[in-house]
Amino acid sequence: MFVLSDMFQLKTMFNIYQSIISVFNFLLPFRLLNTGMFFLLLLIPCGVTFAQTLMDTGAAMSIGTDMDGGGAQPATKPAPRGGAVGKIGEANAQRNAEINNAAAPADAPAGEPAAAGNAGDANAATPAKKAQGDILKDGWWGPGGYISPIKLPLYIFIFLIWVGCAGWMNSDQERLKKESREALNFLYLMLYVVLGMVFFFIPIFWAAFPATFLLCIVPVMVYVVIRNKPLPPHEKVLTGEHLFYLYAVAMNKIGVKIKVKKRQSYQMGPAIEMESAGKNVDPKILQGRLIVARNAPGYNLFRENIYDALTSNATSMMFDFTPERTAVRHLVDGVWLDMAPVPRVADKGKNKDPYEEMLESAKLLIGAKPNDRRSRQTGTFVAILGGKKKKRYESEFVSQGTKTGEAVMIQFTATKVPFKSLDELGMRPEIQTKFVEQINANQGIFIVSAPLANGLRSSMDVFIRACDRFTRDVVNIEDAAFVTEAIENIMLARYDSSKGETPLTVLPDALFKEPHALIVRDMSALETLQLCCNEVDMHRLFITTTRAKDGVEAIFRFLATKIPPQVFISRLNAVICQRLIRKLCPACKEPYQPAPQLLQQLGLRPDQVKEFYRTRTPLSEAEERKRGICPKCNGIGYHGRTALFELLILTDSVRELILSNPNPALVRQQFVREGQTGFLYEGIHLLIKGETTVEEFSRIMKM
Asked: 588 and 628 in contact (C-beta within 8 Å)?
């Protein structure tokens, strides 16, 4: 524990004692017993040191007495009983010989006794007294610091810090259910034992002590940084707020009152806030709904579930309430994932199940009837995810009674588009060039399409940014019920569908301003489509959207409005369709050699592809536990999505085919013959780059 510059044997013995008791104290649960054992074992080397010091002091006293008493003394006096043990005994014998030689006359032969009668000679007594003082000085308070009242408590303090840190790390990992708990505990133990032993042998105390102190603190700080990173703010430790709270608690215990801002119950838990929302609803009514919901017993559980969904990148979540359990599902990257079902913990007539209380608080937030478990009820609310940059999600709530209970669906829509450019969407440069030409054409109709829940709204905002909005006047006609993100240099013309209005309500006024391009997201009505087709002849470009699985289906959806095909097809320039595909997790994907048959089906030669990638291969239960869950994708194997784009440009041959034989299958074949392969080529490109799997690509192509 304490640094001895001249006691190698004592240091080694004491370090062994320290290591042994440290292991006991760390691994066994009886902290008080182990700490007592530590102090007991601590007394053993200290007792040895104390006994040896007394022997050393006794030898010096004996030498001084013999010298003062006069008479002839042998040149080598036997050491006191028990004093000639190990190095201390040898040192005493050597010192006795030096003292006797120093006390002898200068002309006396070496090894002969000192002349008698010189007891009163001061010249002979002075060296003996000096040697005696040196021995006493080097004993208890000598440079070795055998039992230093300063060094020993400092090292005991460090040991207690290590015990406390080790215990906290272990219990914290148990609470967080860390699978690496045993490995981290062992690493912290070995760092303290091995490096502590190295630092112990540093001969300079004030260099060894800080190094040992840092050995206890630095690993804990590293653990705290890694631990806090994935956790919500309320679970992080040693943050400014957490340290102030600990300080306030400590000061309050000693009578110093420090006010800590009391958080309400609805502010506890994850960093997420709720707001009640609704169309044409008085703000006072919305605030009243929020207050009532906050006071409901299941409100915090509702917040926790919404937080878990949003932090998992879910775009929707579903609850299925049955008498036996509550099933929870998240829609992550377009795929439904089953969460662990929650069993019912209360019977009817007793305290309600926590998830039943959660459902009631959610209904109170949207202004629905909590006790109605059969009717279809809808509403909206806003979830605000905390953090450095708060994110707002407009959330739609739908509940419907079922045969076994009730089902709830919640859909989340981010108010801010997460993508800002075509590159971020995943559009390749070759397609970008053609796309920009079509969206900036002088006149015509350009269709943007995507299947349901495939990012049409987000991508549309990015497409608008790609328009030439600085040399042309562009008007965006949108529904007031679905307000999009404001884009600079875009004029807005809004209609309210809740009042029965349509784009045709505001379209004439917008055309009166003579814009070069108009964005009309909904042109499904025949009258609106006819007006837009007529305005194309006035050198205007119309950009519109529709839900379709591919570009050909989008074309035929507009033809289904009964508009004359010649009128529409002659003015249609191009159509782009997108499908979202999951990307492999870069942290855990595995390469493999594809089979020749697979390459042949994809139209690839063996020399074109060295390897494809897939999700990591499942192992046995024990091996999976040892390997652990991938922290980036949470074991799913996919992380995030990118878009596949199909850009179809209408040629004269395609127009003639649609007018003469309006068969979607034949039209698709014609596009392929012209080299417009669309999704197939884009998917193969992602496979070659290793960004997705064959299984995921096959799933997307079957839409």
From this structure: no
Predicted confidence band of residue 347 (pLDDT cuts 50, 70, 90): low
Cα of first residue to Cα of last residue in the chain, in angstroms, is: 70
Whole-number Å distance between alpha carbons of 344 and 339? 15
List pLDDT tens digits, range 444-466.
999 999 998 888 888 888 999 88
d(CA 180, CA 219): 15
Residue with tokens 């002969």: 112
Q: Are 613 and 693 in contact (CB under 8 A)?
A: yes
Contact 41, 17 (CB under 8 A): yes
DSSP letter at 340?
A: P
Closest among 347, 361, 329, 517 to 441, alpha carbons compared? 517
Say which amino acid occupies 88.
I
Q: What is the Cα–Cα distance from 383 to 678, expressed in whole angstroms?
A: 37
**Most distant pair of Cα atoms in the chain: their distance:** 145
The Cα–Cα gap between 386 and 15 comes to 50
410-449 pLDDT, tens per residue?
A: 999 887 777 888 998 989 999 999 999 999 999 999 999 9
User: Domain extents for the chain?
Assistant: 230-262, 268-414, 422-579+643-680
Give the integer Cα–Cα distance in Å for 618 and 606.
27
Query: What are the tokens at 668?
Result: 């698709």
pTM as predicted: 0.63
Q: Residues 134-149: what's their mean pLDDT?
A: 48
Tokens standing for 635? Answer: 């074991």
| Residues sharing a CB contact under 8 Å with residue 204, sequence separation 6 or more, in sequence order | 3
Distances (CA, A) of 35 to 161, 328, 399, 595: 12, 47, 59, 63
The answer to whether the CB of 596 falls within 8 A of the CB of 606 is yes
The pLDDT of 672-679, averaged and rounded, is 88
- CATH architecture for the domain at 422-579+643-680: 3-Layer(aba) Sandwich (3.40)
How many CB atoms are closer than 10 A to CB 328? 20
- 589: tokens are 């994907």
Is residue 114 pLDDT above 70, yes or no? no
Placement of tokens 């053609």 in the chain: 434
Distance between CA atoms of 552 and 23, rounded to whole angstroms? 72
3-state secondary structure of 3: coil
Within 10 angstroms of residue 1's Cβ, the number of other Cβ atoms is 22
Q: What is the pLDDT of residue 234?
A: 67
What Cα–Cα distance (Å) separates residue 424 from each residue in 389, 390, 415, 642, 681? 20, 21, 18, 8, 19
**Residue of higher predicted confidence among 460 and 73:** 460
Tell me, what's the pLDDT at 31?
Answer: 44
In this model, does residue 112 exceed pLDDT 80? Answer: no
Q: Coil, helix or strand for 257?
A: coil
The whole-angstrom separation of Cα 80 and Cα 48 is: 17
Closest residue by Cα to residue 426 from 468, 462, 469: 462
Contact 118, 124 (CB under 8 A): yes
Whether 422-579+643-680 and 268-414 are alike in CATH topology: the answer is no
CA–CA separation, 647 vs 678, rounded Å? 6
Three-state SS string over 691-703 comes to CCCHHHHHHHHCC
CATH class name, domain 268-414? alpha beta
